[in-house]
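Researcher: Let's run the pair from yesterday's discussion. Sequence first, then tokens, for each.
Model: Starting with the first of the pair.
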Amino acid sequence: MKTSDDEEQLLHRGGRPTLADLIDTLEFSPSKGAIELHGARMVLSRATFGADLQDELVRRFGEHEAKVLMMRLGYRNGREDAEFIRQGWPNLDIGDAFTAGTRLHMVTGTVRVETLHNDFDFKTDRFSGDFLWHQSVEALEYQRRHGRALAPVCWAQTGYAAGYASVFFRKLVLYKEVSCAAMGDKSCRVVGKTVDGWGKDDPFVRMFLDEVLVNRAEMPSRLRKTAGKTAPMDSAGLEDRVVAPVRHTLEKIAHAGLNALITGPEGAGCRLAAAWLHVARSGHGKTHRCHATSPQLPALLDSLRQTISAPGARGQTLIIEGIEALTDDLQVALIDMIKTDGVPPEALLLVGLSHLPLRLLRRDTGLRSELIYALSVLPVAMPPLSARPDDLADLAACYLAQMRPKPGLEVLSLTEEAKAFIRTAAWPGNLPELRATLIRAALCADAPPVIDREDLDMARLDPQPPALLQGGDNFSELWDQLVPLFEAGIGVDTLVSRIEQRAVAEADGNVSAAARLLGLSRPKLDYRLKNPV
């Protein structure tokens, strides 16, 4: 193949794999009737195929639904290509792997990409990009068929760019086409930012989140460079980690179109599991949350009944907390809505939440058996953190990744000793307690962004008073020893001051260790030492 000097430079420009690298791996096997790019099966088809697909979707479903579907297909394709690059070139620098998406777009004949601005940092999830798309196949085919467009039409390509880029960050990356060759512009121009950069109230962002992303498995995951290994669950989001013990059951419920009952202790993640189930089953629909005793619940049921009976109704999810407190009238209304004796409405997902286990819901509450059985075809029981010691360090890492105690700080991390402490400590308050402890430790850490065992120990709130202060023989013995001191004129303040000084001496001058021993915060002990009574 003869190329010009400019084309030759373009073939070798950028990181690995370059366009030349990719083309070198392109093979056509007549005996198999297959085209492969670095071992991946490809198909050579006319550019009109994509235009035909877009036109048919618009004709059948309307422009908006066609746009959503094309973006969705592009998004999936982009994610697959990102994984293709990672697996095909496992030792590739993460920056080169990220920018390889632009070269894949070119090698497939989709578009020629010119980078105007591309700023990214994988550690802090910072990203902004500005690109020109020359000779876009979607734009040119649209213009050839329909003339000048009134709005950008490169739907599959913007979806592809979002899918590819989002694999490399813990935040979803979205691209907007701000000018389009189909509209008469010289070339297409796309701008990319994270969801936070655009703002979650942005109409395009809301459309993408509510309609294009329809499955939790399609949400962005972080690509981490590992030595010859696929990225582990470190790349999963917090919700995915929380629901990991019950995910298989939730997937079955979503696939079968069942209603659900999710039980578990306070703070174990029941609400997160319900939200995960909503996205897995009907991510484009709307979620309604209400407590069983809320006075708004009857009106909400009436509104939902009208919504799901309307033609073309989209998925609605109703999450009722404290379901054991439902009145009999409301139970009857719910049973009627989900039609337990017939075919349940596809547009409604009912999720009941309770801190009581299923056996007690059946035995000790006023819930009707018909409602319990309708919700518990596949019951979901969220385990407490005490039953998940191996998951605790990873859950903590997910919380820390979301925290930025002070602007500009690196992502917070735990020492190995801190991870061991988290795995062995009791967390009766479950996820909220773990999160609150991590926030306190992050704010008060001696050497941020690293959090060590001492930081966590100081951040713990122990609601149980020492056994010594609960009465009994131990306290009586201590009191008998203290009385002679008080009678000799040594007051409580003097005694406490001496105890504090002795604790510091026992800790070899380490005020943090002394404070931990005494059950005080380090700042409080430091103040008391400097300001004795």
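Model: Moving on to the second of the pair.
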Amino acid sequence: MSRVWVEGGEIRVHHEPGTRRHPVLHPGPYVRLWVNDEPVVDTRAIFPGDEVRVEVGQEEQPVEVQHRVTPDGMHCFLSLKGGRSGRLRLMDQPPAQELTLVAVPDRSVPRSGPSVKDLVTYLQEEAGVRVPIDQDALQRLVAGLEEELEVAAGTPPGESEDGRVEYLVPFSVERVEVTDEMTDAVDYLDLQRIPTVTAGTTLALISAGRRGTPGSDVHGQVVEAREPHQPVLRPGPGTRMVDDGRAVVATQAGRPAVQGDLLMVLPTYTVQGDVDVESGHVRFDGDVVVLGSVNEGTKVVAGGRVTVAGSASGATVRGRLGVRVSGGVVGSTLAAGGLAATARALVAEINPMLLALERLLASVHYLKQQPAYQSGRSRRPPDGVLIKRMVEMKFRDLPGLVEQFHGRSEAFDEVDVGLEDVAALLHKLLVAPGPMLLQEIDPLEEAIQQLRVAAYRLEADAATSADITVQHVQNAKLHASGRITIRKGSIFNSEVLAGTGITVHRGVVRGGSLQVFRGEISLDEVGSPSGTRTCLEVVEGGSVQARLLHPNVVVEIAGRRFVADTLLRQVRFTTTQDGELKQGVFRTPPPE
């Protein structure tokens, strides 16, 4: 295809041999076109051998001067258009089959119009500029190198420094990073750390803002620096402002939280959904609220109360001050009162072991005071050897007690009394080859002291009353130092242990065992028509009552036992002053 183009202000034509399409030209404004000396008004095809001539006219271009000041008054722009005596040139264009010839201003011709001095006067009188003017920019405008340039600028004010709040404690749950240096087995569900603070902890520091120095605009007017942002931090629950409002401290222990400008220390940690493998275990010193469920393999351990809006399935839930699950409990372990629910049993197990350990310690000290030991200074055996000898001679049962205690340590609540650590330490020191590794007796003395402190704490826990309230229980363990209440469901094949009472309002207790240390067991229906073995026990004193009690249900109060062989209705068991088991009738309370 043939082509026509403009290069260097000249028309170039290429005719493709044999083509039937020839290039076409259109004269545009200010362009006169001749082909073979004949003027072309509209359109003309160019054939081989045609002589093409073009002439570009002139256009009057009066000088137009305009200024523009930005809304903030800090920048002044000047534009200068026209003023080239109307000279035009043919604009270069790439090859095309059809082309319109266009005339553009010839910028190679110096612009005629105002001088730099004239423009300075214009800016000062017309635009009101009172700051130094950029002479170089004016020169470029006059030369026609630019259409618009910034010609004056004000002095900006100094930058204001905003006030700020420096938080000294974390607010979000942190996740522990697993590294190759960790030698112990890693529980990947126990890697999150919920931030907690104690009373008196400084939570945040507040610094006031500072205003920058003033500036001026292009008109010479003063421009003030922006008003600095002053931080606002309000003390919320559990916090107080001190140091003339420059710091916020915690007034109670709990989880620090910030909401907008409100800083708080909350005694409650809320899990927005489920506790599962994604969230990991939840351990918190205060109350814990779970808005979802506690799922398989996870733990919720709280120093306060635990409230679960959903259910607990294959999980562990412990709350020192109580546990409440709105849904059912299946294959889970619930404990209220820390270790208080099993404190008496643990104290009964720990006290004989503690007594044996203290006697072992006294025996070793006695041996070391004997003249034979004191005189053989160069041949004195390590303390571990003495401990091993005394265990073999006088305390043969002690390693077995320690082994049994250590075997149960996984069920201990390490948040409460640290029994798990104590059990591990005693097992390391006293179970073979532990004693032989000891050079000094100090580690054993420290372990015994820790066990003694734990025993004191357990005695206190035994007096703590914390309740459990759930909807339904199946194949689970429930231990509470206070009462256990099943609101509208049943208990199937579960171990239920309470300090002061167990109540099932409307449901069946079938299989497993229910035990109360001192108080009342009040049930709706117990056992099954097929004789499912179900045990009800009050350890010291109290009563057992049920609306229906099926055969093969065992009732035991203060060591006195009764096994039902027929279906009993509205039955109540108590003990007489002589300690004998007494069977009577009770009235079912009206429906709630």
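Researcher: Give me one sentence on the second I can quote.
Model: The helical segments are 116-125, 135-142, 343-369, 371-375, 383-394, 398-407, 419-430, 442-462.
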